[in-house]
Design brief:
- One of its GO terms (molecular function) is DNA binding.
- InterPro entries: Homeodomain-like_sf, IS30-like_HTH, Transposase_Tc1-like.
- It is a single chain.
- The chain folds into 3 domains: about 40 residues; about 40 residues; about 60 residues, no CATH class.
- With about 180 residues, it is an all-alpha fold.
- It is rod-shaped and about 115 Å long.
- Helix 7 packs parallel to helix 9.
- It is built from 9 helices and no strands.
Length: about 180
């Protein structure tokens, strides 16, 4: 249902005048041409009539809870939103906490499991591979088993590429010997 127009200044003045004369709200409503509820709302607080704004649904995250959540994030960035909810005692969902943090400018980043390789690490590994590329079959087997034993291959596409190159070069050398 649509809202009716607010009372004009002329209508407001007329309502006040009629009320001072002692007319009932029903009689004033009939005289002005609006509902008695409008008359009641206006006469209850004439100075603030029409100024109330509806804010919609109340927020689940109060300013105090917002500060607690942000403090929790600053203390340990590795916590999940569910853990933050439990620590702060928030009465909202974990998704609401994530949305709130996003609105406050926090980025949603996954925690890095291990430090990233720097360029010097990559060049050192490549130099090592190049140095040992000319090994014979026995040396290559020892190198490959050493790499597997020390988890040298784990989760590094760069190293997997080097190992693949080493394997192909070892196979080609073995084929030449045979």
């Amino acid at each position: 249902m649509a809202k009716a127009k607010k009372l004009s200044l002329l209508e407001r003045g007329r309502i006040v005048e009629l009320h001072k004369r002692g007319l009932s709200q029903r009689a004033i409503a009939a005289e002005v041409g609006c509902s008695k509820t409008v008359i009641l709302n206006f006469l209850t607080d004439p100075e603030h009539y029409g100024t109330k704004k509806s804010n919609g649904r109340p927020k689940k995250i109060t300013p105090a809870l917002s500060r607690r959540i942000r403090l929790t994030v600053r203390q340990d960035t590795g916590r999940s939103s569910t853990q933050m909810k439990a620590l702060t005692g928030a009465d909202c969902s974990a998704i609401t906490i994530r949305r709130h943090l996003r609105e406050k400018g926090f980025k949603n980043k996954k925690q890095i499991q291990r430090p990233r390789l720097l360029q010097r690490h990559k060049t050192a590994r490549l130099d090592f591979a190049r140095e040992h590329q000319t090994w014979d079959t026995e040396g290559g087997k020892k190198f490959y088993s050493l790499m597997r034993k020390n988890c040298f291959l784990s989760h590094s596409p760069f190293l997997l590429c080097i190992v693949a190159l080493l394997k192909t070069s070892l196979r080609s050398k073995c084929a030449k010997v045979i």
